[in-house]
Design goal:
The chain has about 400 residues and is an alpha+beta fold. The chain folds into five domains: about 130 residues, NusA, N-terminal domain (N Utilization Substance Protein A, Chain:P, domain 4, 2-Layer Sandwich), CATH 3.30.1480.10; about 70 residues, Nucleic acid-binding proteins (OB fold (Dihydrolipoamide Acetyltransferase, E2P)), CATH 2.40.50; about 70 residues, GMP Synthetase, Chain A, domain 3 (2-Layer Sandwich); about 60 residues, K homology (KH) domain (GMP Synthetase, Chain A, domain 3); about 55 residues, DNA polymerase, domain 1 (Orthogonal Bundle). Helices cover about 40% and strands about 25% of the residues. Strands 7-6-5-8-9 form a five-stranded antiparallel sheet, with helices on one face. Strands 1, 2, 3 and 4 form a four-stranded mixed sheet that branches. A three-stranded mixed sheet has the order 10-11-12, sandwiched between helices.
């Protein structure tokens, strides 16, 4: 075993990508552990493998004494001088104490530990490999199903695609090849546990990076992704290069690029939106394909009020509110949408309520409404300076309106 041990360790290390020294140290520790009975009288014993010859030896530290009374713990001065003449009384001397039948025990243990350590090292290598890939995408084949979850064969290990991370209505068969987002990598006793996701917005982002070289090169940037898995996604893109069309680049010639991504997502619809630093333009683009008539924004509250024609209302809101929901997620703004008829009815109600104020006719009520004052409560708490910004209202008139509004509210 001694002659072949280093060769075996070297070979295994090369094949499995494990450091030779790690294997040698593991074999030493395992042999020591397996031989505890033999070393009961030598608590400080250690096992050492010669890095050149592969010879396995047992060494124990003994105290140098004039007269030996405990042979397992002490060594005579006369004997020590043959080993190391520089040692003196009271010093510690390490001597070889390898038992006669030690070779058989060492050989069996070495074989076992090599197999065990290789498995552990492989698990560690896989863990490190996929930990670095967390947040990336990977491709594998469906291997089996367990309690609604899907086990994916990644080649060198298995991964788990939980039911909660699958898109609604998405079904797989054994052998299907799928691409998924590496959501999490955990250490476990049986090896790394790799959790995949098909619902994460990162999957859409990474598929675009894979399919569109300009994104990888930095010519086009994905600013944000909003997704309702299995149904629809919106992706905001931009570019700093004048000769690059960020939307057209992502769509591809005759839609080849976007179609490839949609196929991977099993038909999920994807809207490519042109990002803009101006929130009005960005929100308008995000609500595409709906056409909007007017937009007012409140930057402090990140809220926008959108006016669309009655014909465009259902398109702007989308099926079950999907379009406006995704647009809000994509832009990070709260979006309120009203149709033209609804807005007209609300405006009429506002104007009529404001005409209850003394000295406020329809024309002045419309001016107040246009200035953003839609009810008596707003007027009662308004600042005079802000109120005078409305057409036809001076300082005295503003004071009277505020007082009147407060009186009515009382």
């Amino acid at each position: 075993m001694s002659e072949n041990l280093l060769g075996i360790l070297d070979s295994m290390g090369r094949e499995r990508g494990i450091d030779r020294e790690i294997l040698i140290e593991a074999v030493e520790a395992a042999i020591l552990s397996a031989s505890k009975k033999a070393f009961k009288s030598m608590p400080e014993a250690r096992v050492s493998i010669d890095r050149t010859t592969g010879k396995i030896g047992v060494f124990s530290s003994k105290k140098v004494v004039d007269r030996v009374t405990h042979p397992s713990e002490e060594i005579g001065l006369t004997e020590v001088r043959q080993i190391n003449p520089d040692l003196k009384m009271g010093d510690e001397c390490e001597v070889e104490v390898t038992p006669r039948d030690f070779g058989r025990i060492a050989a069996q243990t070495a074989r076992q530990v090599i197999i065990q350590k290789i498995r552990e090292a492989e698990r560690d290598n896989i863990y490190r490999e996929y930990e670095e890939k967390q947040g990336e995408i990977t491709t594998g084949a469906v291997e089996r199903f367990e309690h609604g979850d899907v086990i994916i064969d990644l080649g060198n290990t298995e991964a788990l695609l939980p039911q909660r991370e699958r898109c609604p209505g998405e079904n797989f068969r054994q052998g299907d090849r799928i691409t998924a987002y590496i959501l999490e990598v955990r250490k476990a006793s049986r090896g790394p546990q790799i959790i995949l996701s098909r619902t994460h917005p990162g999957l859409v982002r990474k598929l675009f990076e894979l399919e569109v070289p300009e994104i990888h090169q930095g010519a086009v940037e994905i600013k944000s992704v909003a997704r309702e898995p299995g149904e629809r996604s919106k992706v905001a893109v931009s570019t700093s290069m004048e000769n690059v069309d960020s939307v057209g680049t992502c769509v591809g010639v005759r839609g080849t690029r976007i179609k490839s991504i949609m196929r991977e997502l099993r038909g999920e619809r994807i809207d490519i939106v042109r990002w803009d630093e101006d929130p009005v333009t960005f929100i308008t683009n995000a609500l595409s394909p709906a056409k909007i008539m007017d937009i007012k924004i409140n930057s402090a509250e990140r809220q926008s009020d959108i006016l669309v024609s009655d014909e465009q209302l259902s398109l702007a809101i989308g099926k079950k509110g999907q379009n406006v929901r995704l647009a809000a997620k994509l832009t990070g703004w709260r979006i309120n949408i009203r149709g033209q008829s609804e807005a007209q009815v609300e405006k009429e109600k506002t104007v009529l309520s404001l005409t209850k104020l003394p000295g406020v006719g329809r024309g002045l009520a419309e001016a107040l409404s246009q200035a953003g004052f839609h009810d008596l409560k707003q007027l009662a708490g308004a600042e005079i300076k802000k109120l005078t910004e409305a057409p036809g209202i001076g300082k005295k008139k503003a004071e009277k309106i505020i007082v009147a509004a407060k009186e009515i509210l009382k």
